[in-house]
Design a protein that fits this description.
Layout: H1 2-6, H2 11-35, H3 48-66, H4 70-89, H5 96-99, H6 102-117
Length: about 130
Amino acid sequence: MQFFNSLGQYRPQALAVLRIVAALLFIEHGTMKLFGFPAPMGDGALPPLLLIAALLEVVGGALLVVGFMTRPVAFLLSGQMAVAYFMAHASKGFWPALNGGEGAILFCFIFLYLVFSGPGAWAVDKN
């Protein structure tokens, strides 16, 4: 147990890794909508609501990667994911594993955690 207890000293770095990896994965959703990369998401022009979501994903994700304005950006993105879950997934059934909403829920709560924890290490923001 001593080994695991000693890992607490790396909490700021582990939080930073969580923030950066989650943000990079989030950006990917926006680039799929905006640029069709790494795979296209839909055909033609985006409806206004998806365009706003894509911009939030790319810009908000980039701000989280560098750790700038982490708490307000994470609050906004957590709300976006809560809305996305109820608009796009909840109507397809109760269970997130069956309605495709697991990702939205995870992003929502990771971002909500960042609102309270701050950015961790390696961030423009200072805790």
